[in-house]
Structures are given as C-alpha cells and as structure tokens.
Design brief:
heterodimer; A: 136 residues; alpha/beta; Rossmann fold; 5 helices; globular; B: 173 residues; alpha+beta; 60s Ribosomal Protein L30, Chain: A; 5-stranded mixed beta sheet; protein-glutamine glutaminase activity (chain B); Chemorcpt_Glu_NH3ase_CheD (chain B)
C-alpha cells in the first residue's frame, strides 16, 4: 500500500542523512531513498528512475536546485515528478517562484515533523498514499 | 474508569474502558504512547530533563525525568504487548513559567521538550502531535479505547473562571 521511492538532492551529507531518516521514520511499508549531492546528479537520477517524490535543496554547487527543477518542468517525462524544496532561502520573491513551480517548500532549519507533514501531504495529494494513512 | 497520573508518575493500560488523565502540566511534559493495533496506551508526567542531575532520585522515581520516564513508559507499554512500529507519541506541556515581566530563567519547559525530541529522534520515534510551550497550564487525557488524546488549556495564573480551550488529537492509523 505504501511503498515509496524518494530522491534527496542536497550537497550537505548531514542534511541528506536527516532527511533520509525522516523519510524512513514516516512508517511506510517500504522506502527506497536515493541520494544526490547536486542538481546535475539529481537530474541524472530522475531521468533514469521513477520517483514518488524529489526533495531538493536550492543552493548547491555544479547545478543548483532551481536549475534542476526548471529543467524538470520543461521535460515532458519529468514535469509531473512531485518536488519538495528544502532550503534556507530567505528571499521572499524567490521562495514564491519556487513554491509556484513545486509542490511544497520547507524552510531550513526545519522541525522534522514539519518536513514529514509536508511530505505526506504531497504524497496524499498525488494519491501515492491514501488520505488519513499518515503514519505515526 | 479514570486513572490519574500524578507528577512524576506513570500509568499504562490495555483496558478499553479506561481514560488516563494528568492535570496541571506547566513546564512538565505529559507524554502518551499508544499502540492502536494492540490497544495499549500509557502516559507519563515528567518534571525535569535529565536523570544525571540526581541518579539516586531517578532510581526511586524514574518518571521524574524525561530520559528515564520515557524509557519506563516504553518498557511498560511493550510489556502489555505494544510494538515499536505502531506506537504513536503525543506530547503536551513544556510551558514557560514566566510570571509577568520576569524571565523564565531556568527554561525547564523548553529544556524538557528539547531533551525529549533528542531522545525520540535517537530511538527512531517521531511525534504524532504536540501541544507545547506558551504560558499555559494543560490537562491531558488519553482514551485507551481509541487513542484519542484531549488537551485542555488554560493560561497559567489565570482566574479560575478564565476560559479554557480544548484540542483533540485523533489517532492517525
């Protein structure tokens, strides 16, 4: 019922670890988490594998999150992959733009429960998990 | 039937007819653990963050401290058949005991909640619902029949007739 595959794109290994653990603690039957260290690597993964959700940081080296998301949104095969951005971005205009083209935004530093709730909301909306099936 | 949890006290139950209740949560924390599959629930009312402040006291009253209290609560619900994968944790309390313009020097409420969060994270739990902080006195109840937690809130030092607010948290599974 609740098998999900999540891509985490963040240049900070500690942050990737925290997000990964949060995803794992959501109580899904089975979770596959793939990690990428920048937008370029993230794009390679989404082009080669189907994901239920991509959790993407914005400020990253090589290719930043905004560039990665923009490329996904003009690609017919990738435009419907749900994206949750997790960033310390404080510029309101940029946050608004990102929020418009993604399914959600979580501001760093975040509380893990807030990340979990946002993630579950997106997965419910995409009918990947049924409403009210939110785990513990 | 009602089971009242006092300060530094713990109660667990697998009797669907029982309601577990604790009163006057200020900077203290009320923590409930409920397994909807096993129908087992428990509540602890802890006062202080870490047992290392007084290990002897912690041995006599494990429910006085967040670390030993949480551990004891989990062991007790496991003993009644709860499973870690199913347990939902709900937290209330951790208020600031600031009076008037005075400062909440020890920040016990905040420290209690920070300690709890760290322990839960380390042990692979997430908080299902929380109602913490502020300058509020809370009363928390857990219905063992369905895991519904009710939190009644009233401002600290408010007159007895001050209006109170009640929130209800319903099990998510």
């Amino acid at each position: 019922m609740m098998d999900v595959r999540v891509l985490i794109v963040d240049d900070c290994p500690v942050m990737r670890k925290i997000i990964k653990r949060t995803v794992e603690l959501c109580g899904f039957d089975s979770v596959e988490v793939i990690e990428a260290g920048d937008g370029k690597e993230g794009l390679e993964w989404v082009r080669n594998m189907d994901f239920d959700l991509a959790i993407v940081d914005l400020n990253m080296p090589v290719k930043n999150g905004a560039e990665m998301i923009a490329e996904m949104r003009v690609d017919d095969n990738l435009r419907y992959v749900p994206v949750l951005t997790v960033s310390a971005e404080s510029n309101e205009t940029r946050v608004e733009i990102i929020t418009d083209i993604t399914e959600g935004f979580v501001h760093k530093p975040f509380c893990v429960e807030a990340l979990r709730d946002k993630m579950l909301k997106i997965l419910e909306k995409q009918s990947i998990i049924r409403p009210g099936a939110a785990p513990k | 039937m009602r089971k009242v949890v006092g300060v530094s006290d713990l109660k667990v139950s697998n009797n669907p007819g029982e309601i577990i209740i604790t009163h006057a949560l200020g900077s203290c924390l009320g923590i409930t653990a409920f397994d909807p599959v096993a129908g087992v629930g428990g509540m602890v009312h802890v006062m202080l963050p870490l047992s290392k402040a007084d290990p002897e006291k912690a041995k006599q009253k494990p429910a006085m401290y967040v670390d030993t209290g949480l551990q004891w609560l989990l062991h007790k619900v496991y003993d009644l058949g709860a499973r870690k994968d199913n347990i939902e944790i709900i937290v209330a309390g951790g208020a600031s005991m600031k009076r008037g313009d005075g400062d909440d020097y020890f920040k016990i409420g905040k420290r209690n909640f920070t300690t709890l969060r760290k322990l839960l994270w380390k042990n692979g739990f997430m908080i299902a619902h929380q109602d913490v902080g502020g300058n509020i006195s809370r009363t928390m109840t857990l219905s063992v029949a369905d895991g519904v937690v009710t939190i009644n809130k009233q401002p600290i030092n408010a007159p007895k007739r001050a209006s109170s607010v009640t929130n209800q948290y319903i099990k998510s599974v």
